[in-house]
Amino acid sequence: MSGYVITYFPLRGRAEPIRLLLADQGASWTEEEIPIADWFAGKCDIKKEAVFGQLPRFKDGDFVLYQSNCILRYLGCKYCLAGGDNKEKALIDMVNDGVEDLRLKFARAIFYEPENKEKYETDLPNHLSAFERILSQNADGTKYTVGEKISYADYNLLDLLHCHLDPFPACLSSFPLLTAFIDRISSRPKLSEYLKSEARNQRPIIPKK
Ligand SMILES: N[C@@H](CCC(=O)N[C@@H](CS)C(=O)NCC(=O)O)C(=O)O
Q1: Selecting from 3.20.20.150, 1.20.1070.10, 1.20.1050.10, 2.60.120.200, what CATH number does the domain 86-188 have?
Q2: Residues near ligand 1 (Cβ within 6 A)
Q3: Can you list the residues of the chain whose pLDDT is less than 50?
Q4: pTM for the full model?
Q5: Would you give the end-to-end CA distance of the chain in angstroms?
Q6: CA 55 / ligand 1 centre spacing (Å)
């Protein structure tokens, strides 16, 4: 038993890339679900304990981390999914920062400012084309975003693409490399098992309003 605990709301949200990484690496973890209503009613002590007053929280035994991208990087280092040398590490970090930038725009348009959803959809190809290009520059798009080995940024990108396909099912139609990336990574045996699991599929991407 690994002793990993993910504390988060009953959502995919910012915990999902962490779950994808752990599932694909064959690691088990425990979920501690915080009801959203309790959190916002001030009933959760964990909000006061949280370093930045937010979730997800990740525990590796006694070691506690917040900030989803930091958790991904930590697990990336632990499972050797963070690049082989300093340049590869930096490139993986760069891709991951690009995923974060688009995740913030996505969350804003879909959750916080739904009136901007149409405009977001119009701009989306410009954002996605950056990731299509990144893939094309590594082994002609047949592998990962960086290098010869899957990285934590790949799990983060995979989740971001899954998130987009829900509200925008056709958004990848002109991006063959991103489409193939999703199919390739999602069909890795352990990940594919997780993606089909009830636990995963009962969690919405973001809260329903
Ligand atoms: N940069 C942080 C953002 C965390 C964040 O926005 N958490 C949200 C849920 S996705 C949250 O805790 N919201 C409740 C609150 O802010 O009180 C991360 O990546 O972990």
Answers
A1: 1.20.1050.10
A2: 13-14, 53-56, 67-69
A3: none
A4: 0.97
A5: 36
A6: 5
